[in-house]
């Protein structure tokens, strides 16, 4: 029987659940990281569980998209795609955060809104979102999260999505959510991420990044791509094919970043037991370094970054990867540099960076704008004041060289 969830009972139930998990973690020396400082223990716990759930939701939807159902994808006004998974993850995480912390206490800054979904011609789309969210919540206990007594209805789900309309800012706590980052990669059966961060008084203090198609080990990527090709060419295939993804997370100031595998089949989430520490690469010789960047030329200036790469002595071909998996690659040492220079006029949004920045910095890396200044999460939805572009790097030596190369290349560029 599902646990009953009225507000009072649920808070108590959740508290017990979290405290039990927290005290288990406390007994385990290798996971002292959660208890070194009581701050954010509950937020961390809920955020990691919620992102695991969201990854599982996305995996199911992606298999469906790849094999069929292109009507689950819509185009936004800027021609970028949005899918059933984007809305469903936003609804699910919004619902979980509100249940745990109280609707009144939760401020969420997230990418999606309900405009398209609320139109009468979108009834089929909304029904798909409602089903996806309820299927996901029905599995919540596997992730250590109580599920609702009854399925959520249309209005509850629309309400959960639309409450994520906070503008953030420089005071108080704000969750920052990109339900599916790299939606283009997602619909193409490639890399994407679920990104959840917590901002307190304008600083990003927690980051959780779910990377459902990014295997725990870099070498497994080739295997994954072979599987994907088989999957996309043939008829329905087992969901387990995507099982090798991971979730990364870090708390600001802890000096540690962690990675754990996604769950498979009927496994229960053993968190934080299965986590391992991750660290940035120690390579500081540009000729040995790998740099990654967005896939789409609309999202960054490939010819400018080619010039920067040449100026600073990078020799390897760039690794073009969708989504915040680029931050994940830097954080665990699969690549050394991530550069993104959007066309002028495009303003970077905080949900595209906050979680990745915390994780890269705690794994030992450096993230700044092209002027060498930290990203400013305190000024609302956008990274206001960003100097030209974003540079995430495994260490200070490479970072200094890139900043120098950007200055050298800038005047001759058309940006
Ligand atoms: N014009 C333009 N310039 C720069 N950035 C833009 C632009 N348009 C969109 N976006 C944002 O980029 C996010 C995807 O970034 P990626 O690094 O994954 O790009 S790429 O898909 O690999 O090309 C993407 O995130 P998602 O919408 O969550 O996928 C957008 O927030
Ligand atoms: Mg995004
Ligand atoms: Mg997105
Ligand atoms: Mg988008």
Automatic annotation (TrEMBL):
One of its GO terms (molecular function) is metal ion binding. It holds the Pfam family Inositol_P. PROSITE patterns: IMP_1 (PS00629), IMP_2 (PS00630). Keywords: Hydrolase, Magnesium, Metal-binding. Belongs to the inositol monophosphatase superfamily. InterPro entries: DPNP, Inositol_monoP_metal-BS, Inositol_monoP_superfamily, Inositol_monophosphatase-like, Inositol_monophosphatase_CS. It comes from Cephalotus follicularis. Transmembrane segments: none annotated. This is 3'(2'),5'-bisphosphate nucleotidase. Its cofactor is Mg(2+).
């Amino acid at each position: 029987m599902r646990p009953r969830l009225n507000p009072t009972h649920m808070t108590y139930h959740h508290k017990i659940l979290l405290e039990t998990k927290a005290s288990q973690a406390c007994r385990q020396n290798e996971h002292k990281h959660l208890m070194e400082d009581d701050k954010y223990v509950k937020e961390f716990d809920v955020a990691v569980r919620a992102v695991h759930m969201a990854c599982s939701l996305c995996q199911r939807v992606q298999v469906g998209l790849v094999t069929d159902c292109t009507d689950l994808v819509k185009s936004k006004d800027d021609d970028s795609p949005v899918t059933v998974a984007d809305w469903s993850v936003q609804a699910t995480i919004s619902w979980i955060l509100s249940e745990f912390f109280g609707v009144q206490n939760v401020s969420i800054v997230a990418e999606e809104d309900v405009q398209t979904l609320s139109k009468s011609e979108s009834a089929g789309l909304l029904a798909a979102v409602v089903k996806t969210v309820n299927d996901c919540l029905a599995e919540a206990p596997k992730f250590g999260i109580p599920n609702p007594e009854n399925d959520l209805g249309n209005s509850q789900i629309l309400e959960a999505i639309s409450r994520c309309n906070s503008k953030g800012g420089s005071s108080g706590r704000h969750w920052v959510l990109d339900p599916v980052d790299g939606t283009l990669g997602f619909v193409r059966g490639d890399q994407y991420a679920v990104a959840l961060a917590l901002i307190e008084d304008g600083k990003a203090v927690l980051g959780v990044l779910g990377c459902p198609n990014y295997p725990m080990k870099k070498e497994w990527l080739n295997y994954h791509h072979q599987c994907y090709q088989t999957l996309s060419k043939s008829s329905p295939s087992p969901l387990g094919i995507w099982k090798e993804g991971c979730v990364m997370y870090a708390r600001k100031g802890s000096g540690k970043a962690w990675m754990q595998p996604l769950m498979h089949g009927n496994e229960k989430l053993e968190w934080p037991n299965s986590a391992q520490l991750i660290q940035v690469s120690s390579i500081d010789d540009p000729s040995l370094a790998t740099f990654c960047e967005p896939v789409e030329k609309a999202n960054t200036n490939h010819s400018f970054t080619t010039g920067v790469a040449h100026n600073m002595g990078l020799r390897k071909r760039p690794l073009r990867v969708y989504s915040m998996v680029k931050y994940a690659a830097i954080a665990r040492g699969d690549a050394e540099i991530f550069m993104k220079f959007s066309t002028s006029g495009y303003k970077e949004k905080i949900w595209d960076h906050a979680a990745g920045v915390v994780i890269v910095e705690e794994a030992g890396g450096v993230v700044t704008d092209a002027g060498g200044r930290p990203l400013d999460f305190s000024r609302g939805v956008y990274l206001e004041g960003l100097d030209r572009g974003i540079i995430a790097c495994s260490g200070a030596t490479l970072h200094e060289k890139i900043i120098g190369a950007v200055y050298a290349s800038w005047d001759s560029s058309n940006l």
